[in-house]
UniProtKB/TrEMBL annotation:
UniProt cross-references to InterPro entries, sorted A to Z: Nitrogenase_MoFe_mat_NifZ
GO terms under biological process: nitrogen fixation
UniProt source species: Azohydromonas caseinilytica
Name by which UniProt lists this protein: Nitrogen fixation protein NifZ
Record keywords: Nitrogen fixation
Family the entry assigns: Belongs to the NifZ family.
Record-linked Pfam families: NifZ (PF04319)
Amino acid sequence: MIDLREPKYPWGLPVKAVVDLYNDGSVPDVPEDILLVAKGGPGEIVQVGHHGEANLPIYMVDFGVCVLGCLEEEITPLQALAAPAAAA
């Protein structure tokens, strides 16, 4: 059995796109290959899922104009993540 790869980012985290995000066919009524979110576009993670075959976390990110499924490599936090508190 393969251990699930844990997501790096939590729900509710403000993020931005680190690459231009185009419609890959997953947004209905919008032509494929149309730019949906430009690099740097802000959004918020509204759900975290998992792709079973690839063992990858998938982030549903609300960019305001649409909600897109993103990989960790396509988004980054708007602010640095707080480091875990050191044990006393």
